[in-house]
Design a protein that fits this description.
There is one protein chain. By secondary structure, the protein is α/β, with parallel strands linked by helices. It has helices at 3-7, 49-60, 92-99, 109-116, 182-195, 206-220, 229-238, 242-266, 279-288, 291-296, 302-305, 318-330, and strands spanning 10-15, 19-25, 33-42, 66-71, 80-82, 89-91, 103-108, 125-127, 142-149, 153-161, 164-169, 272-274, 310-313. The longest helix has 25 residues, at 242-266. The two termini are 29 Å apart.
Amino acid sequence: MSASSQAAPTLLADLGGTNVRFALADTTRPDPLLTDSIRRYRVKDFSSLAEAIRQYFADSGHTARRAIIAAAGRIADGQTVHITNNPWTVSARELETELGMERVHLVNDFAAQAMAVTLLKPGDLSLVGPGTLPRLGSRPTQTFVVTGPGTGLGVAGLLLREGRWMVLETEGGHAGFAAHTAEDVAILMRLNARFGRVSNERMICGNGLVNLYLALADITGQPAADYTPEDITARAVDGSDPLCVRTVKTLTGIFGSVAGDLVLTLGGWDGVFLTGGVLPTLLPWMREGDFRERFEAKGRFRETMEQVPTIAMQHAETGLLGVAALAMIDAGKPLLPPV
């Protein structure tokens, strides 16, 4: 790879089921994400990712020889991904050929969410509960959990080992739901009758709000309205429907239990970073409800869990920021300040 090619901007993409966001990264800068280059397009308006990239280049007046694409789906052999809730199938090698690029790198979208932690500023972070913001690189070995609800429930580990950041990609959102209270048991019974096996994602995501709402309506003997997730959160925010308020509070409590379980499972003693499209709506209830109580309620590990901070990621483009961090790694640039 020539020095001029390495110094050229890298195309970044954050590809989901509905939208694709593009930006450029300049890996010679300490803040590599070029925010004025960010543009968003609707997937349904294009027949392929290559077509959308060409439109981005035409609209922005930029071009790039290298690309890193975070995609909502499992990356098969590091080369191909079929996007969840999206008709596109993306092949790294085919994109290289079609667009004349030197290299296209595909990563899972939640791996990008995890890597965003390495570039976040203190102003992009907000504590949920007690504690202090963790200082990345303050110890030679650190392990964090990164999790959050959106269309589904994403789970990843962010590990610092021997001066390098690594992401442990998981499908932890599909782990089985563990009931902790009598209400949890009642909810589990109703969801089990509907779905069979019940995963954490059945409750902690956008559609999970509807699942919880219907279960709670049945538990309390109330008629259930035909609400969307947006209907439930809107009525919870304005207080017009007590059952919607209870639904959101219940979800945040269950989320606390699951986040705490993830700390135990992954050894994420250094902290939990919270992200996802549904998070901004949930934050007020997480701060005022029993999110932290259920997070800490881990029996003999309660005292240890009380020391683990939970931190909301509040950057506007965490997906693109994480891809920019991966571009830095690809360029051989450090993501930690020199010791």
